[in-house]
Amino acid sequence: MSPAFLPGVRLCEEFYTAAVRPLLHTYYPGLPHTAARIGPGSDVLGYDTPRSTDHDWGPRLTLLLEPADAARHAAGIDAMLRERLPTQVLGWPTHFMPPGERIRVMTVTDGPVEHRVEISTFDDWVLQRFGAPFTGTLLDWLATPAQMFAETVGGAVYHDDHGQLTGLRTAVAWYPVDVWRYVLAAQWTHVAQEEAFPGRALEAGDPLGARIVTARLTRHVMRLRLLQARLYPPYSKWLGTAYTRHTGDGFDDLCDAYETAGRVQNGLGLSAAVEATRRPYFDRPYDVIDAGRYAAALRDAISDPAVRRLPPVGAVDQYTDNTDLLTSPDLRRAVAAAILHAH
Q1: Residues 117-153 pLDDT 10s
Q2: CA proximity to 223, closest of 214, 232, 215, 211
Q3: Cα–Cα distance for residue pair 197/220, rounded to 1 Å
Q4: Model pLDDT for residues 303-312, shown as the tens digit of each residue
Q5: How far apart are CA 36 and CA 64, in angstroms?
Q6: How, if at all, do strands 60-65 and 116-121 pair?
Q7: String of DSSP letters for 274-301
Q8: Could you tell me if 18 and 89 are in contact, meaning their C-beta atoms sit under 8 angstroms apart?
Q9: Whose CA is closest to 196, among 275, 260, 285, 277?
Q10: What is the DSSP string of 235-280?
């Protein structure tokens, strides 16, 4: 039987404190390092459940070393951990099979341990995740999907000798204010572009089409509400979980959700207030919020000329949801750079 479930971030803390750190102190005394549970995984977002334990969940760690120390010691640390790690922590196996595969599962072993301690340097970890050193340029912000930011600021840091990871997490905790206005404006623009379509589809005798567009608009509003709450919207699997947990809003009526989002937008003080009431779509009997009004108000409030010049498309995950693109730092930076350089 499996041991009692506990959040993965807590299990990883015990893994570091009780297993990895004592071994480092014994075999590599005084070695500067950073230890964290960050990156992909439902546990990093805080959404893991007992179901999560069936793959890529368990005692895991990102261990970051100084470049010279990584070159000198990474292979030795990996070998030492394989031989010396306990085979279980709090009853959970530290051994993962099959080694080297994208999906790995905790498995009981007598040793050696195929562990999930990923040894790297801070610079290499940043390059792998962001495609370039993160210096806070517009390209850095707009070429990075919200999921990637969430995986960076989520999870936990258990030890950070030089503070580089802690500094990065602080730097990307949220968008600069004008970039925040810009991504909010882009999200309101999504709503503006389709908000009349459900009513028109129903009028044309297409309830299926109306449901499809309503679902798209629902997704747009959910992401909007998370952005308003200064929370990076996660990818689709966790969007509803994040929305329910962090906004507390119900979602029985789309126009009610529009009005709530409008009131929240006005309360943020990021732009001139806009009347947050539904209205007909021109002379057609479809209720809308006229979301373009909010987008315009936000764009008018942007003070940075470089941000004001941008087209109303937003960050890379606001205009594409292609997983292969969003998970490739080089591809998404190339796409975002093309948009930035064209304006």
Answers
A1: 999 999 999 999 999 999 999 999 999 999 999 999 9
A2: 232
A3: 14
A4: 999 999 999 9
A5: 9
A6: parallel
A7: -----EEETTEEEEE--THHHHHHHHHH
A8: yes
A9: 285
A10: -HHHHHHHHHHHH----S-HHHHHHHHHHHHHHHTSS-------EE
> Using alpha carbons only, what angle is made at residue 24 by residues 18 and 27, rounded to the nearest 5 degrees?
125
Element of type H or E holding 83: helix 67-84
Is the distance from CB of 162 to CB of 121 less than 8 angstroms?
no
CA distance linking residue 270 with residue 297, whole number of Å: 9
pTM confidence score: 0.94
Block residue for tokens 């209720």:
287
Placement of tokens 């679902």 in the chain:
215
Three-state SS across 148-162? HHHHHHCCEEEEECC
What DSSP string describes 93-127? E--EESTTSSS-EE---SS----EEEEEEHHHHHH
